Fold this protein.
Amino acid sequence: MYQKAIQIFKPDLGEKHPYSARSLNNFAAVFKAMGAYWKAEPLHRESMRNFKPAFGGRRPDYARSLNDLAGLFKGMGVFEMAEPLHQEAMQIQNKTALGERHPG
């Protein structure tokens, strides 16, 4: 289903469109759930690369993409790669959910 969505969104909307990036992220989650981490990682990374220009790296969708890649690394036991991604996602979420003036 997600693969079909990617086939539809990419040509019509472009790979940098949020729908395309979200479909990639969701497709990666399927591979992660199957334990196919080597298939999930490149999809998560591509999703992140596409969300960042679309939202300037300051939106909840980009933060979710960071968190999902961090969760993948955590599942693989590569905690040193997961931690900075979780921290960046948390900073974005704090600023977007709580406002720019929030000290978090």
